[in-house]
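Quarterly update from the structural biology core.
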Amino acid sequence: MRGSRHAAAVLFAVLAVADLGLGARLCASWAPRARALADASQAELGEALIARAHSRSADPSFRMPLVPLLESDALLRLSPREAAAAAAGLALLTAWLVFALGLELGGAWSGLAAAAVWQVLFALEPKIPGFAKQFVLTPLVLLAALALVRRARRPGAASSALAGAAIGASLLSRGVLAFLPPLLAAGELRGPGRPRARAARAGLLLLACALLLSPWWIMNAVVQRRFVPLENGAADLNVALGALGVVHGGDGNALALTGGKPVLPWAARRVFSRPGPFLRGVAARLRFALSLRLWLFALAALALLLRRRDPAVRAVALLAAYWLAISVLMPVEPDYFDPLWPLLAALAAAPLAALP
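Predicted structure, tokenized:
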């Protein structure tokens, strides 16, 4: 086993060097274009921020706290060398986390295989770190997956709190995992063991997730005079279009689509009164998602069948299924599934644990 780990570490180092070179080359060539885009949109962005700040319906919490940071003018104005360093570093971090997740699920060769698959996918469809939100979200989702694996293997107060904190960290970037902590807490309450211990673990998971978001909630309470848990209206258009059955994203105003009514109640009434378009849209989005990486979905499903008794494998499969399910409820684009591919790669490589 020690020899296989050493061999896998050496091969992973080769992949890491490839990541560094690929990320540097891509971002160095893309940085001038990014700066040109920033110059072209700066006036428009400044006018929008000024208008929002002086409007009675001001919405400074339109996005999660990490998003303005990632889309800041300072970041877009990085020099080619600085942008290349950021690209290479984030690519290397993601590759290492994919390797670590595969290692946890199936050992050294599983980790190497998962990292190799992610490396190939990154080489075929590279994302530019610092300018692509999904690329930054991916390592946060991988951290959540690793925390869930630890919680599945060693259920307890510490692992539950760690899982909640990891999920909360991802919510600082995007709210995709917002419904996962309540689902996990509900599953904890219905699981085996003493009721008080289960309730304590569920409470710690929710509390740890909430603590990371509490400064954001307090800021919104002061500015908005109301409780804003996540994106303040950022997903309204997607929710409305999802209820109408739209497959891919579009432009428009959510309130114009709903006739000025609140989006969530309108969408719920629309789905229950006319479920056909919504269900057809979900089916079309699901077909689209499967068509992107059908071979990877198939390998991950086979691995889950073979390793279904392993609670860690089931935990990562639950996270992947949740990501797929929540994504297809609203209009989708190919990059929405970027954080899903490393999860499926780690699952697909899990059966390699049977290798000597």
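Residues 2-53 form the longest helix (52 residues).
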